[in-house]
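#lab-general

N.A. 3:47 PM
ok so I finally got the sequence cleaned up, no stray characters, all 153 residues accounted for. can someone with queue access submit it? mine expired

B.Y. 3:52 PM
send it over

N.A. 3:53 PM
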Amino acid sequence: MQSLSGQSQTSAYLYVRLAAEHVALAGTAVREIMRWRTPTPIPGAPPTIPGLINQRGQILPVIDGRLLLGLPAAPPDRATRLIWFHHEQIDAALLVDAVVDLIFIEPGQLEPPPINLGGAVQRAVQAIYRYRNDLSIAILDPATLFVLAQEVL
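B.Y. 4:20 PM
back already:
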């Protein structure tokens, strides 16, 4: 979206929750938000990939966002959602605890991630956004999410 001043591009991000963590995916990577449903298990797959779902004729691997980023597992509840996300030629369903909001961010509002992040989180977070000046939202890189998921296979 073009701002009224014509100076900067505003981008949409889907703001979701993983445990107590607040993260967002670029709106351009999100295809659809789906209610939780139990995926079909894949024999021998790691817990990070709990199975497959069929959405509109597309078979999608389900990636547990909590486990992928090193957070503790949790059973699904009424707020649990699957986010069909896409990067280049790859599609998957990201399991999240809740969808919070659609937010619009200008590039100048993004800050570099802190250097003290560790593990998968350090690799997956591409920027930080200060939501309403009091909450930090980690902007996740879809490409890195796919790389991390492939590494656990």
